[in-house]
Amino acid sequence: MEKCLKCANLVIPGAAFCSNCGTNLVQSKNWIPCPSCLKIINRTDSFCPWCGKGITNIDNLGFVPPEMIFIEGGSFVMSKGESAHQVNLSAFKISKALVTQELYEAVMKINPSKIKKANHPVESVNWCEAVIFCNELSNLLKLEPCYSLDNHTKLDGFDYSSQIWNRLECNLNANGFRLPTEAEWEYVARGGKFSAPFLYSGSHEINDVAWYGENSDISTHEVCKKKPNNLGIYDMCGNVAEWTFDKFQKLPIVQQTNPTGPSYLDTTANHVKRGGSWLDDKEQCTVYFRSASVRTGKSSSLGFRLCAKAAKKI
Which of 20, 23, 126, 286 could form a Cys-Cys staple with 298, CB 3.0–4.6 A? Predict the structure, then answer.
């Protein structure tokens, strides 16, 4: 079933109008969310009629920009057991889907994935390459890049093994794309402000929401084919594990507000990955399981999704 872009009501495939709000579903196929304010606009608009920001014509881009979902800020208990602690988060946006091979190749002109299928998540991307992709996509959509190295936002010329990456800065006030922080990732996986105590993102039954070791047939799968969680976000658990912005640390048990992990001057720490993958067991696909990898690490079971500064809710 498909959803009406205006009211999110489920509609019958091929229907001309939404039975709930009456929206013309034929015309709405040309609608996209404004990258800056998330209001629905026509794909041919040069400027958003809501916020006035310039819009790159996606027909000229050759790809459809990722759909970003507004996540209302709030408080939640992160982790579990002795590591459980309260975290307060401001509002942000996160991509409905994992970054696909189709989108990655359209932006970077290369597909590094080992299991090559256009609508499957991109994988075999290291942490640096995920960061570079965020800036490149931001530039294509005329948004301000979030990441910089010594004031440079064009990052593909820096050696991934160089210690210069420990000086990476992230401008959280920029309107471009970035990786989610570990706290943002878990907040979304748990369902945000109105979270439910599920083991997996959206369900206690892993087969409803995740491709993992026992049902994946040893492969990634097309994105958005399992059930979403209550925020409308797909594949938070399983399919591919996801890079986050943070470096790995033992979680503090004090209350935190908008944490971003340990200092990047900590050159010994690896980067956090969350969610589990097509080859992992149930425990590794839970909303609280944590693991890490060196920034140059890559695997056919590791990808990423996008995050961004919040704008007004649709």
Answer: 126
